[in-house]
Amino acid sequence: MNLSRYSLIPILVFPIIFSFNAAAFGQSQPQNLTFTYLTSWGSAGEGDGQFDGQNDVDFFNGKVYVADYANNRIQVFDPNGQFLTKFGDSGEGDGQFRKASALSMDSEGNIYLADQFNFRMQKFSNDGTFLTKWGTEGEAEGQFLHPHVPANDANGKVFVTDRERADVQVFTDDGQFLYKWGGVGEGDGQLSDPESSIVDSQGNVYITDYGNDRIQKFSNDGTFLTKWGTRGEADGQFKGPAGLSIDANDKIYVTDKNNNRIQVFTSDGQFLTKFGNAGSGDGQLSQPEGIGVDKESGTVYVADTGNTRIVVFEPLV
């Protein structure tokens, strides 16, 4: 075997570089994480498959659920964008909405909807059957001024951000108030216009601290753990972090609303990748808000609010 001293260099160096990257990110998955545009659907309007300010999107058991904000409803699609069903309309009764702001789903497929200007949360079964509701307007425990994006943990807790109160309230899955944290400010654990929440496999809670252009991470009881992000356009910076989702490996997906892109991080805030840019073409985004990830395939569904559509990306493996 006649190898020159130059041909030995890649053989010796490559394992060192690979080991350094894996250790740096604390991940076993490949570090060349890349996403490509797959499809999109939707347009402005009130018909089936049309939207008026869709704010949030989630994925569960082969279906895509969209909070259709100003149409006061939830629409359900298959992964290719085929309309399946819808529920909700305008009003104050059970199953009616005054701006369907955002949604989340628990492990059983129950749906939790932030009914913004009715100042309440509503809970539905997977087929849209009304189950319960809680909340009124106010600043007391269990009340809301601007309920936004909820999240669910594995133990039946529901975490609800409130943009005006600048706090996170925690409930049982039938609406019993448990505890809260937050408050207006820039310090650790303080919030400014908090948008979304998500819970990882360890029960830790992540909040998009929109007004402070950062992500904050808390333990399940609200103890501050870490933060990342500053205002800007560089990797790891934000101009209005809005939506949050999480994949099977606890990677955190953030819609960077006014940078018109998605950024992906490890659970401790290490930047991994980004995709999307400003525009209305394939794979482009305009003020994206909600985001949902299929934990089996890694497919990403984005509420491309400014373009009134859902945009879908898939990982290259």
In a few lines, what is going on in this structure?
The N terminus is likely disordered.
The sequence of SSEs as H and E is HEEEEEEEEEEEEEEEEEEEEEEEEEE
Net shape: globular
What share of the residues lie within helices? Answer: under 10%
Mean pLDDT: 91
Strand order of the largest sheet: 1-26-25-24
Tally of helical runs: 1
Query: What is the CA–CA distance across the termini?
Result: 34 Å
* Main sheet makeup: 4 strands, antiparallel
Structural class comes to mainly beta
SSE order and pairing:
Elements (H helix, E strand, L loop, with lengths): L7 H18 L8 E8 L12 E7 L2 E6 L4 E5 L5 E5 L1 E2 L5 E2 L2 E6 L5 E5 L4 E5 L5 E5 L12 E6 L4 E6 L4 E6 L4 E6 L11 E6 L5 E5 L4 E5 L5 E5 L12 E6 L5 E5 L4 E5 L5 E5 L15 E3 L6 E5 L4 E8 L1
Parallel strand pairs: 6-7
Antiparallel strand pairs: 1-26, 2-3, 3-4, 4-5, 8-9, 9-10, 10-11, 12-13, 13-14, 14-15, 16-17, 17-18, 18-19, 20-21, 21-22, 22-23, 24-25, 25-26
Please tell me about this protein's structure:
- The protein has one helix at residues 8-25; strands spanning 34-41, 54-60, 63-68, 73-77, 83-87, 89-90, 96-97, 100-105, 111-115, 120-124, 130-134, 147-152, 157-162, 167-172, 177-182, 194-199, 205-209, 214-218, 224-228, 241-246, 252-256, 261-265, 271-275, 291-293, 300-304, 309-316.
- It is mainly beta and 317 residues long.
- The strands form 7 sheets. A 4-stranded antiparallel β-sheet has the order 1-26-25-24, with no helix packed on it. It has a 4-stranded antiparallel β-sheet with strand order 2-3-4-5, with no helix packed on it.
- The protein is globular.
- The two termini are 34 Å apart.
